[in-house]
Amino acid sequence: MAELTLEGVSVSYGDAVALSDVHLDVADGEFFTLVGPSGCGKTTTLRSIAGFETPDTGELRFGGREMTGVPPEERDVGVVFQNYALFPHMSVAENIGYGLRFHPVDDPEARVAELLSLVDLDGFGDRDPTELSGGQQQRVSLARALAPEPDVLLLDEPMSALDARLREELRREVRRIQTDLGITTVYVTHDQEEALAVSDRVAVMHDGRVEQVGTPREVYHEPASRFVASFVGENNLFDGERVDGGVRVDGTTFTVDGLDAAGRDTGGHATLCVRPEHLRRDAAENRFALTVEQSEFLGEATRVHCDWDGRTVVWRTDRRVPERGAAVTLGFAPEHGRLL
Amino acid sequence: MSRREWTGLSADRTLRSLAVAATVVTAGVLLLVLYFPVGLVFAEAFGGSRPLDSFASTLTDPFYTGVLAELFARPFAVGVHLDNVGSWFAGVSVGPGGVDTPPLSKGLFGFTAYQAVLSTLASVAIGLPGAYVLANYEFRGRRTLRSLTIVPFVLPGIMVASGFYAAFGQAGLLNDVLALVGVGPQRLIETNPLFVVILAHAFYNAPLVARVATAAWESVDYRAVETARSLGATRRRAFRDVVLPQLTPAIATGALLTFLFTFLTFPIVLAIGGLELATVEVWVYYQLTEVLAFEEAATLAVLETAISLGVTYAYLRYESAQRAANPGEGPPREPLFGRASDAAGSWLARSRVVGALDARRLAIAGYTLVVVVLFVGPLGAMVLEGLTDGSGLTLRHYEFLLQRQASGASFQTKPLPAIRNSLVFGVATVAVALPMGLVVSVASTGEGRWRSLLETATMLPFAVSGIVFGIGLLRGLVFGISLPGGWRFVITGGVAIVAAHAVAAYPFVVRNVAPQLAGVDPRLVESARSLGASRVRAFLDVELRLAATGLVAGAAFAFAISIGEFDSTVILASDVAGDTVTYTMPVAVERYLGRRFGPAMAMGTVLLVVTAVSFVVVDRLGGRVERG
Known about the structure:
With about 350 residues, chain A is α+β, with helices and mostly antiparallel strands. Chain A is about 20% helix and about 35% strand. In chain B, α1 (about 10-45) packs across α20.
C-alpha cells in the first residue's frame, strides 16, 4: 500500500499537450477519482501512473519511491480497462492467475479461487472469458488486477461499456472491495455522477489541467471554476456585475452570502451559479420572473427549462409544474448563490 | 491452471537477448542472402565507365520503351511530343467494325506492362464472380473451395505451363474433346499465344482476387445494406452504393498484386510464348544465358525492379490506409441448390423471384463451366497425359520413373531424391522463414512515415525478379566472396537453396502475421505488463499466441512456396560436382520435360499430389492450433 504523488507532470504528443503541470497527492488507501470530459487528460494521467506513458517532465512517486523510468511490470499496479482486456486465449482462472507467474504465491490455485469468490464468480474458473457477460468480464478483469496484491489499483472507465443498472451495482461492489482491501485506487471516469457517488476525493480535469481537487461535496457545492461549476452537476450560470452584497444581472440584483471568499471588488465581472434544485417558487429572496418552456418528468422530480429574457434557466422541482408558456416566479436563498 | 517453473527476471533477460539475437540474425540473413546478391547484379548495371549511359541507351531505345523512347531522348521537346499525340489521335477512325487506332509501338517494357494489365483485367473478371458465389451462396464444399483458392498460387509455374500445353496444345485435351464432337483441331497456343499466356496468368491470380474479395465481401456490414434498402434503394442500387465501395479496396489489392506478379512473370511466358512474347524478365534471362550480355541484363533488371518496387510501395501505402475497417457479419448466404419456395405470396410474384434466381443460377452454372475448364482442365490434362500415351491408358510413364529410380545413373535425375529434397527444403524453409517473418512483422507493426519504406524494403522479394535473385546468389554466394586473409565465404547446395526459398517465402509470413499482430489490442499487452510481464514476455504470452493462426498460414505459404520455387532453384541446383544432389521436384519436371513429355507429366502429378497432401496436413495442424 502506498500514497501516490504526481509533481508537475506534463505529457505532450508532438505539438499537442495532453497534460500540463499536473500535481496530485493521493493518500494511502484513498479512492481517488479523475473526472472530466473526453480529451481532458484523465486517461493520460492514469497511463503515466501505470508506466504506459513517459511524462516529458515531472516526478511520480509511490510512497516516496521515485517511479519515473520504472517499467510497468516493476511498478506493482493493477489496471482495469474499459474493454476488460481479458486474454481471449486463456480461461477465466488463467487470466486471474497470470500475474501470479510473476508474483509467486504458495498456492496459486487457492489464490485464484479466493479472488473468484471476492468478485462473486465462484465456479467460473474454467470458462472462456468470451462466454461471460460484460459485467462478469469486468469482475474477472478486476480480480486479475488484484491477484498480485498491487500497491495501487488503476481503473480506466471500467463501467462505461455496461448498462446503467449494472453500472451502479458494479460500482458499489468495486467500492466495497476497495474499502475491504484498503488499496490506494485511482479511478478514471467521464461520468461526474459516478465520480461523486464512489470517491473519497475527486480531481476535476479540463484541457490537460487539474481544475479542482476536493471531496465530492466540495467540488459540488464550492466549485472553484466556471468549468467545474458547469461540469459537476447541473448549474445555472449568469454573467453579471459585482455590486455591494451580491451581483447584478441585467438590472436584477441578487444577494449572495459569503462573498469574502471571492474577494472581488465592486464593479468587477462576476458569475452567479445557482443549482436547479435551489430555485423555488416559495423562496422569499432573489425572485425573478420566467416563462416555462419545456419539462421532463424524472420520477422523483421534474426538470423544467424556463426562459428568462432569452436565457435558459433549469429548475428542478418535486411539485406540480405549470403548463408550457405559463409565467412563473422563482427565487433562491442567499446561501445557495455562489459567485465565481 | 498450469504453473510455470521459470518465472522472474533472469528468464526475461534470456528472452530479451534471444529477441535481439533473432533480429540481428534476420537482418544478417537478409543482408547476405537478399540485398548482397541483388546488389551484386545491380552493381553490374552501374559497372561501366559511364554508368548512366547504359540506362540512357536503354530508355531511349524504341525496342525497350516504344513510343516513349523519344520522350526519354528529348524530355523537353514538349511541342514535338504534343504533335505526336495529336497525329496519333488524328489517325483514330470510328468505322463499322469498331474503333480503329493507328499502331502504337509499345516496346519491351510497354508490352510487359500491357500483358500485365490484360492479365489483371482477366483475373479480376474471372475472380470476382467467384467471390460473389463464395460470399453469397451456401453449398457443400464451400469452405473447402474457399481454402483451395490458395492452391493455384503455389503451383510451380513450370508445371502450370506444361498443364496448359497438355490442355490447350495442338495434341492437348481440348482438341481431343473437340474431336469427339467433330470440330477440327484448334492451334490455340500457336496462333494466339498471348491469349493462352493471359489465361495462365488468370489461372494463378484469379483465385487470389477471389480470395481477397471473398474475405472483404464476408466482412461487409450487412446492416448498412439493410439500411440502404429501407431508405428506398433497390437491391442493385444498394449493392452499388454500399457493398461495392467496401469491396473496392480488396479488389484493388488483388489487382495490384496481380499486376506485380504478372509484370515479373517468367516461366509461363517462356514456356508458352517464347521470345516472341518476351517480357522484360524473359529478356533478362535470355541476355544472361544466351547472349551473356550481363551489363545489359543488369540494366534491364534494375529498371524492372524500380517499376515493381514502385508498385509495391503504392500497394503497401494503399493497404495501410485501408486497415481500419469495421468488420461486419457479411451477407446472409442462401442455399445454391434447391430452394423452399412454399412461402406465401402471389404466384406471379413468386414466379418472378424464382425466375430471376434461376437466371442467376444459370449464370453461375456457366461460370462454373469456365472455372472447370480453366482450373481443372490444365491440371487434369497433366494427370491424364501422365496416364496415357498415343494408344490409351498406361502406367508406362510411372514405370519409367520407378525404373529411373532403381537403375538410373548418378548423373540422371531420379524422382525420389527430388521428392526428398523438396520436403526437406520445405521444412527447412519454414524453420528459417517463420522466425524471419516474425521479426520483420514486429519491426513493421509500428507507426510512422518510415513504416511504408521499411515494409517496401522487407518486401523486396515480392518485387525483385527471381532470375536476378538466382543469378545474384550464384555469383555471390555459390561462387564465393573473397574475405581478407585468403578466406572465401561460400554457401552452396542445400543451404543456398533453403536460403533462397526462405527469402522468397518470408514476405508471405509477414503478410499473414503482421495484420494479426497489428490487430492485437494494445491494452492486452499493457494488462500483461502491469501484472508483471516484461515486454518480451508479454509478446510471447499474448501477441504471439493471438497471431498463431497467422503463423500457421504463413508456415503453409512458406512450405508451399519452397515446394514450388523454380526460378532460383533451377540456377542453384547444380549437382554435377557435389556428391549429394539438390534438385527438387519442379526442377525434375523441367529436366524430364525437355526430353520426355509423359514422364514429365507423371512427375508433375507426383508434385501436385505431394503439394496437396502437405496442404491438407498443414491445414489439419493449423485447425488444431486454432482450436487449442
